[in-house]
Design goal:
homodimer, 201 residues, alpha/beta, 19% helix, globular
């Protein structure tokens, strides 16, 4: 299965302000920069709880594809017809679960979720669009990694409004963790609430 | 006077590791990406104490232009013929001092120094070259700003080795501080060691 990130950041690397707002990103997504085309290639989204709570408060649900929310707590209700499912467990278990369901390409979104998947060596492609502003503080796109993550630059595109989008492939050899736990590992403890893996079943 | 930044960073925005090393940057500056051409346009460098101590330990002094080091402490000796002078005081005072000496274009380098000059609204141009690697932690290029710093994208260049260089102009209206103190302000207290301004005289 392939996992991609498609995200906008300030030039200093923040995906949102500390309060979760992102008024520094161009309204409505700004000048077209490939989001629609990218979204057409994914089968599902995997987002974190913070991102879910943010988008659940929007006037309209923004995703036309199934959304898997990583959380240990029950989700707030969403609009009718919205495809949302809660999962939990480490990234490798989530990926194995979704692959077992026949999902071939996931869009991983949200700062903490992106960081966890990167650290687990489970992101294949990064598409980062920089907005020409420094905001100084906020929720960072990237976080700690246990060792250098080497990337291969695929392409950079620039847009009239000042957006600069760079696409990178994560080099397989540089991925941090890696071993995907066997699915049986979480299937053997389906009733244990103490096990975060159990919640992904 | 014009002030520019020309700097290489990891994709996650670090100019060096926490110990000051920058082995993740391509050796010898990597594929030519405009450093020589940029350096030809500057009259002098303004660097911080950390940067000075780092480059002073190199086998060869890397700068052919005069270097002003911002520090309150005396500098370690440098090689004969090397043009180095210590200055102190807030960025606006340093800029006024250098402008008074007829310097028209400074190259501001070093994480803390870049951040101080950005916060003071004294950087005109940012040229940031991204290396395709995530290192997770280190000395960041950017830091806190008291308000958004709006930028205008000038150009982005990509190189075969994977370097991506984006050039931005800082929009004058978005600059944070701004008022350049009159030079007389520091000339009236030349003997005060307690005044950081005094050291720039």
């Amino acid at each position: 299965m392939k996992a991609s990130v498609f995200v906008g950041t300030s030039l200093d690397g923040f995906i949102a302000r500390n309060d979760g707002t992102f008024d520094f990103l161009p309204a409505g997504g700004g000048e077209p920069h490939g989001y629609t085309e990218f979204m057409a290639t994914v089968d599902a989204l995997v987002i974190g709880r913070h991102t879910f709570d943010t988008v659940a408060a929007f006037d309209a649900w923004p995703y036309a594809k199934p959304v898997f929310v990583l959380s240990s707590r029950a989700l707030s209700p969403t609009l009718p017809g919205v495809l949302v499912e809660r999962l939990a467990g480490p990234p490798a278990v989530v990926v194995a679960e979704l692959a077992a369901r026949g999902i071939a390409h996931i869009y991983v979104d949200g700062g903490i979720t992106i960081q966890r998947f990167l650290e687990a060596g489970l992101i294949d492609r990064l598409i980062v669009t920089r907005v020409p502003v420094l905001i100084g503080t906020g929720i960072p796109l990237f976080g700690a990694v246990s060792r250098d993550v080497l990337l291969t630059h695929v392409a950079t595109r620039q847009y009239a409004s000042g957006l600069v989008q760079s696409e990178y492939a994560v080099r397989a050899g540089s991925r941090a963790a890696g071993d995907v736990p066997a699915l049986v590992e979480c299937e053997t403890r389906p009733g244990s609430d103490a096990s975060p893996d159990a919640e992904s079943r």
